[in-house]
Fold this protein.
Amino acid sequence: MSRRPTRATIQGCAQKKKQQEKALNAKLRASGQVPPLPASLPNRCSTFATIAEEREAREDAVSKQMRLLRKELPTLLGQLEQIPDPRDPRKRRHKLTALLLYGLLMFVFQFSSRRETNREISRPQFMTTLQLLFPEIDTLPHADTLFRLLRDIDLEHLEQAHVDLIKRLIRGKSFRRYLINRCYPIAIDGSQKLAGDTLWAEELLQRTVGKEETRHTQYFVYLLEASLAFHNGLVIPLLSEFLEHALGDSEAQKQDGELRGFVRLSDRLKTLFPRPADPAPARWPLRQRAGDAALPWLPLAVHDRAQGQGFVHGLAGVPRAPCPETASLAALLGTTPTALQLGQRHRLCLRFERASASQAERSGL
């Protein structure tokens, strides 16, 4: 018996989704908010009237991309060149930077496999165009060569090079037009990459699938991905945290999950992107607004520790007075805090705290 849903089931789910969207939009309108409109592709013909116009538009798009590549690639390739090469020096034919650039091209052109990469990149026209953009490239390696390199290389160096590139873009204010409330929004979500019936690595998670006689154990790769998600839809990968079977709770017979992975991923984010020691840079965006009337008198504070071990952080991230109990925040503030439950031990409580006179002077309020 097929487990695929029938046409009536699919239509019922679609109708239920529409009803939920209508109810949500009605709540947003009642609260004075504007419901978001779904993005749709334009239903129009091409705006290019001649071949020359289309060629000019393509050349303009490529030139803009090349300006960014020429600006960032030298620094990035210089950092990648410092990574220890695990290959045998007597059998090296291509430089380490050429292999890693080859890997970047695989993701830029969204090739689905190594075979497709070998087939498409080795075309004469592709190679000629690529040499116009990168004259220093003489030959390209085989995709299997890149696979053997990535299998043996220390991936922490590649991750650090990627993080340093993001930091350079942030320092250069490349994303200032796409921020949300003058902040860099980070979206964290889980994603499954591979699944199969063979245990080919000890780190794989497992689950039971099927019914009755077809019931069997399936092994899969699962990870949490943290990405910069801007308001215009631009998403830039930031960090990844793999879930491993050994990192679970063996006493409770529970394997690694998203909550445990989130704790490790958040610690890595705080280590790689620490809060500034001087509170002035953190409050600098608040001083860019026009007039004091645009600034709320009650700044937002965050409590992100387990109950009984809390610390209150101001806008600059400087630890304030310890908060002994989450429930006692109401007595401390005179109001009930809003809590978002993330787990039994990890809570995120948002509250307001009146700034002192000295803090207001330092913040420019």
The chain has eleven helices and nine strands.
